[in-house]
Amino acid sequence: MDSEVSAKVSFRRYPAAYKLGILREADRCTKPGENGALLRREGLYSSLLSSWRRQREAGAFDGLAGKKRGRDGAAREKLAAENKRLHRENQRLEGRLRKAEIVIDVQKKISELLGIPLNSPELDEND
Questions:
Q1: Are 42 and 12 in contact (CB under 8 A)?
Q2: Three-class SS of residue 97?
Q3: What are the pLDDT digits (tens) for 72-97?
């Protein structure tokens, strides 16, 4: 086992819902020692409780309790719609490409049958 202290300090992060739940429990504590038992059970310090109370009074938790991290639903739907549109356009363009390749193959075969060279310099000058 390594006894050295790591160079990087890692701090615990608490979701807003957890903070609000602990604050509700702490507010219900009326008997002496209940708050201390709550803090010991959760592995928290009283200073955290104080700062969370200040945050709650300042309105820092308003609207955050049920919010998930990441893109919101509207952005996901917008990206999904854009992805679907681009997929349809890609399929349409692939179909046009297949048709163009067929036309080019037919033109090559006709030019071979008629004996007309496709990359003739005198044809390019007359155009």
A1: no
A2: helix
A3: 778 888 899 999 999 999 999 999 99
